[in-house]
Amino acid sequence: MGKYLLEDVENQQQDIQLTKKALVYLSPHSFLITVVIIITLIAEILPLFAPVIMKDMIDGPIRSSLHSDASGEDLKSAIKMGAIWILMIMFMSGVLNYVKAILTQYIGQTIVHELRNKVFSHLLHLHLDFFKRTPLGRLMTRLTYDMDTLNTLFSEGLTGLLGSLIMVVFTVIFMFYTNVTLTLISLAFIPFMLLSSWIFSKKMRVVSREVTTAMSKMNSYLQESIGGMNLIQMYGKQKQNYEMFDKDNNWYKTQYIKYAYYFAIFMPSLIIIIEFAIISVVFYGCHHIMTGGQDIQIGEIAAFPWFLLLLFNPFREITDRYTQLQKSFAAGERVFHLLEVEKQFEDGHVSELESPIKISVNNISFSYDENKTILNNISLEIQPSETLAIVGQTGSGKTTLVSLLKKHYVAQSGTIKINGIPIQDIKDQLLHKVITFVPQDIFVFSDTLAKNIALDKEINQEKMNKICEMTNAKDFIDQLPNKYDTVLTENGASLSTGQRQLLAFARALYQEPSILILDEATSNIDTESENLIQDALKKMMKNTTMIIIAHRLSTIQYADKILVMHQGEIKERGNHHELINQKGIYYKLCKMQFEDY
């Protein structure tokens, strides 16, 4: 299962590559992003005027009042005006940050919506082999948790990082404008902040990936356990399953605590560095004034702790954003890697096929891997309105053969043609319209029975009644509380196995296929349901080309042609009576199932 999962990819993509991929999705929203950048620029610069106003008040009216006979009213008026300006600055900055937050969330959610649709669309066209090898829980994590994490990248991440960088640059400019000496003392602590940020962010990137991997594994096991709850309870495996889940849950807890541990160390380390910077600036400034220095004013000393706090916030946010970006990059690696999984093949160009439909299979060979051949040099023809049955032991290649007809896999050698046209040249949509596949495990949607039959087609009640009568499904439908409008429970849990099979037949015929493929149509059902299905099959054989894979040979005795497969090869072919007379594999299979042979 590993080759499709990021956890097994050795060459992980660099942040710069992921950022480039993210920019592709940001570019259609360039106008809104430009607006956000302008708002961010103003919102981040405005608070820097507050310490400047405070400095001017201390070194202006307040200092003058200490050395002159200026009236108290003038001093009060100056302080009042300064306070009003500071409040206005903070209010305007708050409003702008609010607007920025709304816009960035809109951008982020819009992009994630588009990306989630793109990923889901991509999944719909991947090899079935991919879904067999990839745990469902991990795919669910990609489409939910990872997508939500990516929202941070597209909304707060890049714009927030930009805002923090703007704040750092302009804070330093304002600090130099206020006092060069105090600025140089302050900047001496920047390397320590950068070093702390670099060390912890690197560690948190690794742990963040482990957190998501642990969650993915836990979700996968949870999905598997809920899906197999009937089996778990039947065999009394609750304790073992609980212990396995507890193990995965503990691993997730351990990784998350490790992440919290690094974050908990990192934040205090930044605070301590800033506190040292503030103490150093105040101590140096006060000592300088007390020793007669003239190039540092009291207001400047008072302004610098404010400047340093404004400098600390973006540094903290840069690292915080960077930490969030690490999570987003880890999520992005998985999502973008999923988009890079190769599709099964390019769609064909043929969009129409003339009736009747004829299938030719010529010297097909296929294997899932190099070690074991599943099909070896298979050739056959299926004529219009012919019923072809395929029998053989488990693993003989029956289902693989019909999967090739549906383009679920690509043969290593040989050709499959429909009306003389190579199957790879036929558009997928047309192929799915021509060939309908009824699998052994029937999936039922949580919707009305009518919609489960019609799927994406328009509901025609007259047509539906006729088809349900033909497939013997109407009897059980009429017994349902709301008949065709009955809402079925998830995966058809309210229906019996036989009823689900009859529903599948009705669904298949409603699509009006030229060819109907049935995979083990009567497996795991009772005798009464089998009789109903056999009767339905006889009716369906009259007007439809059918390919039937069967273990129960009672369903295929009326087939026009029967293929007997063994170890990936066709060993016998003919109708029921011809094969019985051959006294070969088919005869032995019949003898095992029926007393009359």
Care to describe what's here?
By secondary structure, this protein is of the alpha/beta class. It folds into two domains: 2-339, ABC transporter transmembrane region fold; 359-593, P-loop containing nucleotide triphosphate hydrolases (Rossmann fold, 3-Layer(aba) Sandwich). It contains 21 helices and ten strands. It has helices spanning 15-26, 30-45, 49-67, 72-123, 128-133, 136-143, 145-178, 180-187, 190-227, 229-234, 238-290, 298-339, 398-405, 428-434, 449-454, 461-470, 474-478, 497-510, 527-541, 576-582, 585-593; strands spanning 359-366, 375-382, 387-392, 413-418, 421-422, 435-438, 515-519, 545-549, 561-566, 569-574. The strands form two sheets. It has a six-stranded mixed beta sheet with strand order 6-7-8-3-9-10, with helices on both faces.
**What CATH architecture of the largest domain do you see?**
Up-down Bundle
Query: In what order do the strands lie side by side in the largest sheet?
Result: 6-7-8-3-9-10
- Between the first and last Cα atoms, what is the distance in angstroms? 45 Å
Q: Write down the overall mean pLDDT.
A: 77
Whole-number radius of gyration? Answer: 36 Å
How helix-rich are the residues, as a percent range? 55-70%
CATH superfamily of the largest domain: ABC transporter type 1, transmembrane domain
**Major β-sheet annotation:** 6 strands, mixed
Shape type: elongated
- Counting DSSP E segments of at least 2 residues, the number of strands comes to 10
CATH level 1 name of the largest domain: Mainly Alpha
**How many helices?**
21
- Which regions are unreliable across 5 or more consecutive residues at pLDDT < 50? 1-13
Class per helix and strand makeup: alpha/beta
CATH fold description of the largest domain: ABC transporter transmembrane region fold
Query: Number of domains in the coordinates?
Result: 2
Percentage of residues in DSSP E strands: 5-15%
